[in-house]
Hints:
Strand content: 15-25%
Helix content: 25-40%
Structural class: alpha/beta
Mean pLDDT: 91
Distance between the termini: 11 Å
Amino acid sequence: xxxxxxxxxxxxxxxxxxxxxxxxxxxxxxxxxxxxxxxxxxxxxxxxxxxxxxxxxxxxxxxxxxxxxxxxxxxxxxxxxxxxxxxxxxxxxxxxxxxxxxxxxxxxxxxxxxxxxxxxxxxxxxxxxxxxxxxxxxxxxxxxxxxxxxxxxxxxxxxxxxxxxxxxxxxxxxxxxxxxxxxxxxxxxxxxxxxxxxxxxxxxxxxxxxxxxxxxxxxxxxxxxxxxxxxxxxxxxxxxxxxxxxxxxxxxxxxxxxxxxxxxxxxxxxxxxxxxxxxxxxxxxxxxxxxxxxxxxxxxx
Length: 301
């Protein structure tokens, strides 16, 4: 991989820079000598801004998307209206509407501004529900996304935007990259309010529980996931951006864990005693999801 020159760092835009992965990526790129503009509708919630410029813009608006792209060489498009399973399962129209506008506007604005490279952040939610019905199935390969049948609107809009990136590459010659995230976790992420992911939710519940008490777990807790630390995630994003690989690529781990195991692990780390798991009704998502990393290892090492 080539690094930017010290004489003139490439000018990079990170959309969604006020969010969890986005602000970690800004810090990562700054440490490597890039000039970084961050864009979001909000500032990072738990840390200071590391970007050279941070602009509060709404990328659902064409004029603001166009403004965000000025003078930019590379775009890491992470902006999205999203959250944990509770949010995704209850806001289908809002998610599809907002994210479609964000992706249509930012990709076209990048083309108009002659951006050199554009990385689109997709999700494991693009994979069809019929491949994820048992607690222990074959890890998902990139080609398994079709025939398409994502569970929620979030998965559908991600899949459509992947195709948009592919068409911009074939029709306009734009260099695009597509990454499919598998359950990213780590510090400075949302931990309450309904948009948090499972690891943060479990940590919050255990932190607030007393020894001898209980925490709620949606469903029977036997649904399985694999979780990838945000430091590994941003390293993977960066390697993919600089690579020659143009097809969608999984980015995650292959270590399956049930939600019950995740909860018990957090309880063990907390040092609290005799905390019970109370299984209650709630959205669980697909029964199983795991990443097949064969192509990731081949392409990015």
